[in-house]
Automatic annotation (TrEMBL):
Subcellular compartments: Plastid
Protein name: Uncharacterized protein ycf23
InterPro entries associated with the record: Aldolase_TIM, Uncharacterised_Ycf23
Keyword flag Transit peptide: no
Record's keyword annotation contains Aminoacyl-tRNA synthetase: no
Length: 332
């Protein structure tokens, strides 16, 4: 909590465990994560979940509360439970799906596995989002392939979905995906720290025309909340600061006018990298060699859990010349 501005959510099925977590800094609590109980043959009935929700609301009347609807229930029963949870004061409904999103087979069969695993949570998101007024969040069984389907189905947010940040189209797609009145969280953690190691060095100010307009569209037209986490390194550019300030000033001006209907807002906070004064681009051949070894190790670990299609997509996302492409093929 001391180093992050992101909302910290604590999950439990014991309402009495929440107060100490909130006191420690959690801004959101969740009744959910039933998977470990399923493995022991324990399931939660709608009545039990409603009781847990009422008790949590009694103990913490103002905390943001997310409640997971079990996928073990029939779809009509999931919708009915979601409606009752909304009446009991839940702020967010979370859906469940298959437990694993990593396919066991490569190629087209792997893609089919991913869609099949995500089907329960996608179906629940579609049905529940049309029955309640509060946001619906998808989680279990999703991957980079099926996460966009969740947004199309009606989910206001997706858990465990990340993009390669050094790809401008990735930024654009992420920002465009926000729904009316929804929220989008963007991290420049990877971008500012790693962009200088790419073949073509590109920093945030170079993206200002595309991203700035999209941010303004999301904030002003869709009344959305934009949370941005910016990493502060020793090689942080002053131009980035000025660009981020311009976004803040635009939203302040919009809110200050009685003629504008501005309900969206942007929050920008910095993460100061520990020892940031010693950070920076690798300068010596020895440093570059060590950095390359770490990158290769990381890529190998990542590749072990990716399908052939995902590895191909990763190769396309990393700009390389002929020699670099050959080395990348050796790693992946």
């Amino acid at each position: 909590m001391m180093i992050l501005f992101l909302q910290i959510c604590v999950s439990s099925v014991d309402p009495l465990a929440f107060p100490s977590a909130v006191e420690a800094g959690a801004q959101m609590v969740e009744i959910g994560n039933y998977d470990s109980f399923y493995e022991m043959g324990i399931q939660f009935s709608p009545e039990q979940i409603l009781k847990l929700t009422r008790e949590t609301r009694r103990i913490l009347p103002s905390i943001t509360l997310s409640v997971t609807v079990p996928h073990m229930l029939s779809l009509p029963d999931q919708v009915k439970l979601a409606e009752l949870l909304e009446q009991e004061g839940a702020d967010i409904i979370q859906t469940e799906g298959g437990k694993y999103s990593s396919p066991s087979k490569p190629g087209v069969l792997g893609l089919i596995e991913k869609v099949t695993t995500a089907t329960p949570t996608l179906a629940a998101a579609y049905s529940i989002s049309r029955a309640v007024q509060i946001p619906v969040m998808c989680s279990s069984g999703l991957s980079a392939v099926t996460a966009p389907m969740a947004l199309t189905a009606g989910a206001a947010g997706v858990l465990s979905f990340q993009r390669f940040q050094a790809d401008e189209q990735g930024w654009v797609d992420t920002i465009k995906s926000v729904r009316f009145g929804g929220a989008v969280r963007i991290s420049t953690m990877d971008w500012l720290g790693q962009s200088q190691y790419l073949r073509q060095t590109v920093f945030w100010p170079s993206l200002s025309s595309a991203v700035s307009e999209l941010l303004k569209q999301v904030i002003f037209s869709k009344h959305a909340l934009v949370n941005m986490l910016v990493t502060y390194w020793s090689h942080f550019l002053d131009g980035t600061d000025e660009y981020l300030k311009s976004i803040l000033y635009s939203t302040i001006l919009c809110h200050s006018s009685s003629r504008n209907n501005c309900k969206g807002r942007v929050n920008i906070k910095y993460y100061i990298v520990p020892g940031y004064k010693k950070t920076g681009a690798a300068k010596s051949n020895k440093d570059r060699c060590a950095d390359d070894k770490l990158k290769k190790m990381a890529l190998r670990v990542i590749a072990e859990s990716l399908s052939e299609e995902e590895i191909a997509g990763l190769k396309e996302a990393i700009p390389c010349d002929g020699h670099q492409q050959q080395r990348l093929d050796e790693v992946l």
